[in-house]
Amino acid sequence: MRQHCFLIALTFFLWLCFSSMVLAEHLTVVPVAVAVAQEGGKAVADKPWLEQRIAVANALFSAHGLKFKLISIKTLPARHSRLLSRDDRDALGVYVKKGVLNLFVVAYSKDVDDPSQKRRGVHWHQRSATNKHFVILANYSSPTVLAHELGHFFGNPKHSDVPDNLMSYTRRGGKLFLDQEQSRRIRESLKRYLSTAELVLSEQSSQEYRCINPVPKTSQSNCSVPEQIP
Asked: Where are the beta strands (DSSP E) in the chain?
């Protein structure tokens, strides 16, 4: 009888540990610091607009070990509301904060490769400091554009030819998805960003992440709540 009870208790304990590990993977929360440009004395996007896009991204990325959390919103000067050149994009680099995913929202973003077109979103590497990269989103972009650019941010630079893949431009009304290889790149990018402290998780998220994805000791000491952007 005692042996039977022991086996039941052991089975429950192992199940609980497994469940906690799976749950922990889905609680890897990436902090997002947003800077919104002003135009005509008003911000070009409000908090509900941002929250909707982050919610869409979470719905797509949660199955791949990532969730995003809006931690701060800063106002950008009006001179950054319309991005017409590469220099305009680079100028946002001065506002980039360490330890967080930096998102900039503007009123207009010209396609620098085809000036006759405009861009809804872009994952941009600052040319003068290639270690700085961030996401730019135009306020006329659809709710899924942020998720697409986050796919670029997390290791998927190329576009897909498969309809309804998140990284494809082709939509046929199906459910958006990321494939197995894209998922692998996302996880590998997350590990790299954590190991270099480019992204710093909250202490809770950091502990949960380390349960299933050990990271070097040098980065563990950096797992604190990111500084709020003033």
From this structure: 29-39, 42-43, 67-76, 82-83, 101-106, 108-109, 121-125, 133-138
